């Protein structure tokens, strides 16, 4: 077993990476003086992984929404529901499926070892039958309809549908009522046996824990498995967007918009690229930026305005969005501002404010056991490391940010998605 301590001189903190004999990679981030603990157990398997091969075999295609369906079903076992077991330890448990991963988690202030045993037990012990799978279709079908009725959800997925020609990121994480009807117990076992291999998974624990304590539970509960070579397949995705404008009518009090800039996604962004992008976006659109003030002064946005880097395997975009009485005008102002900044570069003072803000947020997040664990697993899934990101933020130079700006935010390659009342212009 290989245990590596990862230190940050800048953050003044450290944590441990363990290559467990079972094949699982484990991160342990002890926080002295903390009473709470948080654990997250994730697999590199999300909604976009619907076409894959194992060990060089034939390509397998599974229904859209099956990763999310599997997440729901995994809490069940012949002995009962995992939530019932957690209730006995007092842990607060949850799970989620994103585009590229599925994660199971809990937080607690007591009985950590028992809760960790539950987590490692039920995630490694699937139980699917035709009857239980059929029962879940109605529940998830209702969840799909709920998201279809959510304007925030629709404005984002409409944007993705307008932006991407082929990549499955444009497909709802939960699938559709039609696709989940194709899911069977056999298909659930098929994808489980491929992607829920410990060599394809990560466990991250932070808080009132020790490396020895975590490894004692891991040694007891983990079931070693043979590593599999998994290859995911995606259709070729052109750089150009599919549609520049997408609109849907909805009963909303104020129109919503998402303006997405499609970026190149040849390979995952590294820590420096992520750091420089975050500083750039903060300088461009945070609530201290000139763009934000101009949009506010023009009554084109309100405090709901936000921005984000949206990135994963084969997809990458920058999204600005929120409520606006005039979404098209807001989008034009954002695009014009970006065009001007591209000509002149980021102002040095704006850069320093943004760098300090991103750095402060990054370091302060190390005070939250949930933020630590979620960040570490997010970075690790992409082959990155949290302290390397913080170091990149701290050491960023203005020329780094302007170089990143030159690579991004093509104002001729963006999609505007609007959700509004039928009678609005």
From TrEMBL:
Superkingdom per UniProt = Bacteria
Q: Which SUPFAM superfamilies does this chain map to? A: LuxS/MPP-like metallohydrolase (SSF63411)
Domain Peptidase M16 N-terminal: from-to ranges: 64-176
Output the InterPro entries linked to this UniProt entry.
Answer: Metalloenz_LuxS/M16, MPP/UQCRC_Complex, Pept_M16_N, Peptidase_M16_C
Name of the protein this chain belongs to = Pitrilysin family protein
Record domain Peptidase M16 C-terminal: where: 183-357
Q: Which PANTHER family does the record match to this protein?
A: METALLOPROTEASE, ZINC-DEPENDENT PROTEASE
Pfam families, from UniProt? Peptidase_M16 (PF00675), Peptidase_M16_C (PF05193)
């Amino acid at each position: 077993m290989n245990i590596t301590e990862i230190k940050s001189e800048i953050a003044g903190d450290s944590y441990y990476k363990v290559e467990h004999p079972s094949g699982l990679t484990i991160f342990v981030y002890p926080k002295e003086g903390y009473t709470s603990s948080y654990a997250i157990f994730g697999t590199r398997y999300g909604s976009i992984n619907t076409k894959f091969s194992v060990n060089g075999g034939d390509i397998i295609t599974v229904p859209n929404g099956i990763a999310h369906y599997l997440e729901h079903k995994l809490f069940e076992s012949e002995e009962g529901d995992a939530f019932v077991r957690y209730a006995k330890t007092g842990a607060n448990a949850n799970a989620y499926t994103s585009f590229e991963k599925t994660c199971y988690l809990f937080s607690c202030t007591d009985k950590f070892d028992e809760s960790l045993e539950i987590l490692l037990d039920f995630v490694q012990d699937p139980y699917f039958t035709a009857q239980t799978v059929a029962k879940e279709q109605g529940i998830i079908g209702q969840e799909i309809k709920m998201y279809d009725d959510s304007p925030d959800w629709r404005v984002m997925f409409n944007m993705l549908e307008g932006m991407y020609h082929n990549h499955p990121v444009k497909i709802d994480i939960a699938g559709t009522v039609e696709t989940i009807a194709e899911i069977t117990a056999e298909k659930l076992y098929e994808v489980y046996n491929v992607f829920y291999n410990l060599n394809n998974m990560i466990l991250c624990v932070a808080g009132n824990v020790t490396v020895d304590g975590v490894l004692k539970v891991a040694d007891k509960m983990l079931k070693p498995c043979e590593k599999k070579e998994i290859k995911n397949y995606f259709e070729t995705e052109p750089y150009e967007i599919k549609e520049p404008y997408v609109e849907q009518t909805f009963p909303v009090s104020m129109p919503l918009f998402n303006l997405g800039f499609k970026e190149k996604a040849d390979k995952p962004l590294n820590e420096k690229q992520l750091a420089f992008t975050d500083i750039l976006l903060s300088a461009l659109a945070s609530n201290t930026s000139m763009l934000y003030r101009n949009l506010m002064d023009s009554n084109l946005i309100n405090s709901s305005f936000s921005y984000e880097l949206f990135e994963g395997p084969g997809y990458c975009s920058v999204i600005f969005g929120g409520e606006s009485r005039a979404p098209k005008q807001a989008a034009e102002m954002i695009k014009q501002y970006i065009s001007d900044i591209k000509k002149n570069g980021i102002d040095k003072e704006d850069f320093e404010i943004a760098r300090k803000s991103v750095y402060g947020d990054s370091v302060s997040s190390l005070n939250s056991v949930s933020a630590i664990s979620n960040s570490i697993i997010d970075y690790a899934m992409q082959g990155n490391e949290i302290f390397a990101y913080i170091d990149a933020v701290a050491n960023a130079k203005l020329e780094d940010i302007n170089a990143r700006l030159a690579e991004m935010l093509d104002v001729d390659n963006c999609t505007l998605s609007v959700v509004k009342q039928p009678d609005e212009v």
